[in-house]
Amino acid sequence: LHLSLTDAPVLLGFICGGAVIFWFSGASRQAVTTGAYRAVEFIKKNMRLDKKEADIEDSRTVVRICTEYAQSGMWNIFVALMSITLAFAFFDPNFFVAYLVSIAVFGLFQAIYMANAGGAWDNAKKLVEVDFKEKGTDVHAATVIGDTVGDPFKDTTSVAMNPIIKFSTLFGLLAVEIAVEMKKAAEGLHTDYTPFIGVAFFFIALVFVWRSFYKMRIPPREPAKAAAKH
């Protein structure tokens, strides 16, 4: 290994590690946001909030909706992360080590930032409600919005950074060892297939990165409004 910031593969590895962390931050929040939106949509259409007792079937449906979107988001993120790790491991060892270092550094500070920011938003709402006694005011409405954003920050993305770093490191080190052995075996045969394997995994990763956002998006309301008018 030769790690130097003047080497293009090493510098690119650092950039890619940070990019993966920020992609994961967005994709995990996207899954939570879409699931919550679908659950609220179902509640508005089907639940009667004036009932004294909760409907068991409606409650189960809400739990099912949230679970489905959580699993869909988790599946997209897992396959994308696994494919990215395999792809980068098969490209270049120096590039991959820089990528792992970058994931650890960016992931650590991103987790600290999101945990603190989410907690601050949550505490701001409690402060307005309990200490300032301003529940129902515009200030309280603003803190509710902040708390809605802060919950995925502190309860979803920040706490998931640790397994992301561990998975990438442990799984990636095994993969890069296989890639190095394949390169050594290919020296005598003059056929090195590791770059092609890396490209294949990279394209798989791109597909699931795309799915993690565009397949989890909240649909626009314009068609529904147009149908309601007619």
How far apart lie the N and C ends? 67 Å
Q: Note the beta-strand portion.
A: under 5%
Helix coverage percent? over 70%
Record field, number of beta strands: 0
Radius of gyration, in angstroms, nearest whole number? 23 Å
Sketch the major β-sheet. Answer: none
* Structure annotation, total helices: 6
Structural class: mainly alpha
The pLDDT mean sits at 87
Along the chain, the helix and strand elements come as HHHHHH
Shape: elongated
Low-confidence stretches: none
Question: What is this entry, summarized?
Answer:
This protein is an all-alpha fold and 230 residues long.
Describe this protein's structure:
This protein is 85% helix and 0% strand. With 230 residues, it is an all-alpha fold. The protein has one domain. Helix 1 (8-46) runs parallel beside helix 3 (93-131) and helix 2 packs antiparallel against helix 5 (194-214). It is elongated and about 75 Å long. The N and C termini lie far apart (67 Å).
Blueprint of the fold:
Elements (H helix, E strand, L loop, with lengths): L7 H39 L9 H36 L1 H39 L6 H52 L4 H21 L7 H8 L1
Give keywords.
230 residues, mainly alpha, 0% strand
